[in-house]
Specification:
189 residues, alpha+beta, seven-stranded antiparallel sheet, 7 strands, globular, signal, SOD-like_Cu/Zn_dom_sf
């Protein structure tokens, strides 16, 4: 047997073994790719929660790669947590119904099962922020994280504009939602 044939067989065997040991679910379009072309670094997008019980902000700031997030929300009852939170594909309609925000932002067609593996965030649904960065308990939520797969550039698969952020209680019910909107630019004197 020639050396090139042996090397080819070894390569095929190695690939097959790697695939057999890799039970990670990726999307039909592959893994999410980091976003590197947000139009304005530092541009701010905000979802404002202002219901009778849930108050606060979910802030997204465009970074060189992806988005930096800050959550500062009160009013989600601790006994109903932990809470998942996701970016959903549709904005909250005028009637405020969270059920009408559609599915999670899933640009790479991954689906929700099996659950997201936080140690492999590129394999998760793009909008599954709690799957990638951890659930929240309720009460006063303060959390910061960076997600390289979401974008403020409309041409990117992870675009967050005209979408909603939704909090789900431990039963998966949608309990709070708000639209993600570009923040107005402050006027300079």
């Amino acid at each position: 047997m020639q050396l090139s044939s042996v090397l080819s067989l070894l390569a095929v065997g190695t690939l097959a073994a790697a695939q057999a040991s890799n039970n990670v679910t990726t999307g039909k379009l592959g893994d999410a790719r980091p976003v590197r072309n947000n139009p304005v670094i530092g541009e701010v997008w905000i979802a404002e929660f202002d219901s009778e019980t849930v108050k606060g902000t979910f802030k997204a700031v465009a970074a060189q790669i992806g988005i930096n997030y800050t959550i500062d929300i009160t009013g989600l009852p601790e006994e109903n947590g932990p809470y998942n939170y996701h970016i959903h594909v549709r904005a909250v309609p005028e009637n405020g119904t969270c059920a009408d925000t559609g599915a999670h932002l899933d640009s790479y067609v991954r689906g929700q099962e099996p659950p997201c593996e936080a140690s492999l965030p590129a394999t998760c649904e793009v909008g599954d922020l709690s799957g990638k960065y951890g659930k929240v308990a309720g009460g006063h939520i303060q959390k910061e994280f960076h997600d390289p797969y979401t974008a403020t550039n409309i041409i990117q698969l992870g675009y967050i504009g005209n979408r909603a952020v939704v909090f789900h209680d431990k039963s998966s019910a949608r309990v709070a939602c708000a639209n993600i909107k570009k923040a107005p630019v402050a006027a300079t004197p």
